[in-house]
Every structure is written in C-alpha cells, then in structure tokens.
C-alpha cells in the first residue's frame, strides 16, 4: 500500500526542504556564533527529520536535547491541553535555547514550552519551525525562524503524522480529506 496515494498535493517538496535547511542553518550559525554552547531542543516526534537535516547545516558546537510534549489526542484538531510526556535531561538555567518544531498552528504548544523554559531560567528561548500556519493561531506567537508559511490545511510528511502514520514521507503534503473523515 503506497503512502503517496493518500496525498492530495505536495506543499513542500524535497528540494525546497533542502533549501530551507541550508538557509536557516546559515542564519542560525551566524546569529549564534557568539553564544556559548546553545541547546537545540527538538519537540518529539514531529521534529525528527527537520532537526536532523537542519542541525547538519549549523556549524557551531551545539547540544541537542528532546522533549515530548503533546496538545493533540490524535485526529486533526488541537485539544489546547499541553502535556509533557518526556522531559529533557539537562538544566536550561543560563543557557541559550533554540526549540525545533515541525509546525506552529494554534501557538499553544510553544507558548507553554517557552514560558516553562524561561521559568526554569533559560537565558534566551527562540523557535525554529519548518512550517508556520498563522491562520490557525489562537495565542499570538511569532517563531523567529520559519521555513515556510502555509495555508490552513492539515498536512503530513517529513515528521508530521496523521494517527502516527505518514511521518516517513520525504516531503510535506496535504492529506486527502477522505482519509480523516471516513
Ligand atoms: P499548536 O500547539 O501550535 O496548535 O500545535 C503544534 C502541534 O500540533 C504541532 O507540533 C503538530 O504536532 C500538530 N499540528 C498542527 N498542525 C498540524 C498539521 O497540519 N498536521 C499535523 N500532522 N500536525 C499538526
Ligand atoms: Mg510538533
Ligand atoms: Mg501529531
């Protein structure tokens, strides 16, 4: 059974993803070159392909950590209730933090995590996200580094899932609505 047959259209192709990682990697390398060992925190599981590709374009000594936070209970809409399922293993006190996300939609997840990391004493907290869906915002939130701004569509691939499937698609595509309405 092919995954591609469930995709209505490709929104960000492999070449575009490559260019985004190169561009953001250069920008981050330049902005963080005077900081001491920034920590990149990936939000599982959606961040995995993006963090892995982006980090290889950041030419600096960085640490990489992961947190598993969730505002989704499956399906295609956010619950608004952000839970920490797995915390990171290092103290963020006095550290420069760069959170890597797959997509910013309502803004609830990042708003909660940024507040938490600042409360824990992080020196700075910025966001790098592959996708930004500003039309979905419930809480005003502007990520510093954005790969590409997308319309209010439910997308999958390159880390993003629908009920845990499609994360391994090499591109970002719009899921056919009949997949989640059936
Ligand atoms: P927020 O808290 O900004 O509403 O949502 C962030 C999380 O919701 C993302 O990290 C992602 O897991 C999920 N999400 C938001 N929009 C989409 C989408 O279009 N497709 C998928 N697969 N997940 C999404
Ligand atoms: Mg995510
Ligand atoms: Mg998900």
From TrEMBL:
<keyword id="KW-0808">Transferase</keyword>
<dbReference type="InterPro" id="IPR000836">
    <property type="entry name" value="PRTase_dom"/>
</dbReference>
<keyword id="KW-0460">Magnesium</keyword>
<keyword id="KW-0660">Purine salvage</keyword>
<keyword id="KW-0479">Metal-binding</keyword>
<comment type="similarity">
    <text>Belongs to the purine/pyrimidine phosphoribosyltransferase family.</text>
</comment>
<dbReference type="Pfam" id="PF00156">
    <property type="entry name" value="Pribosyltran"/>
</dbReference>
<dbReference type="GO" id="GO:0052657">
    <property type="term" value="F:guanine phosphoribosyltransferase activity"/>
</dbReference>
<dbReference type="InterPro" id="IPR029057">
    <property type="entry name" value="PRTase-like"/>
</dbReference>
<feature type="domain" description="Phosphoribosyltransferase">
    <location>
        <begin position="12"/>
        <end position="162"/>
    </location>
</feature>
<dbReference type="GO" id="GO:0004422">
    <property type="term" value="F:hypoxanthine phosphoribosyltransferase activity"/>
</dbReference>
<dbReference type="GO" id="GO:0000166">
    <property type="term" value="F:nucleotide binding"/>
</dbReference>
<dbReference type="GO" id="GO:0046100">
    <property type="term" value="P:hypoxanthine metabolic process"/>
</dbReference>
<keyword id="KW-0547">Nucleotide-binding</keyword>
<dbReference type="InterPro" id="IPR050408">
    <property type="entry name" value="HGPRT"/>
</dbReference>
<dbReference type="GO" id="GO:0006178">
    <property type="term" value="P:guanine salvage"/>
</dbReference>
<dbReference type="GO" id="GO:0006166">
    <property type="term" value="P:purine ribonucleoside salvage"/>
</dbReference>
<keyword id="KW-0963">Cytoplasm</keyword>
<keyword id="KW-0328">Glycosyltransferase</keyword>
<dbReference type="GO" id="GO:0032263">
    <property type="term" value="P:GMP salvage"/>
</dbReference>
<dbReference type="GO" id="GO:0032264">
    <property type="term" value="P:IMP salvage"/>
</dbReference>
<dbReference type="GO" id="GO:0000287">
    <property type="term" value="F:magnesium ion binding"/>
</dbReference>
<comment type="pathway">
    <text>Purine metabolism; GMP biosynthesis via salvage pathway; GMP from guanine: step 1/1.</text>
</comment>
<dbReference type="GO" id="GO:0005829">
    <property type="term" value="C:cytosol"/>
</dbReference>
<dbReference type="InterPro" id="IPR005904">
    <property type="entry name" value="Hxn_phspho_trans"/>
</dbReference>
<protein>
    <recommendedName>
        <fullName>Hypoxanthine phosphoribosyltransferase</fullName>
        <ecNumber>2.4.2.8</ecNumber>
    </recommendedName>
</protein>
<comment type="pathway">
    <text>Purine metabolism; IMP biosynthesis via salvage pathway; IMP from hypoxanthine: step 1/1.</text>
</comment>
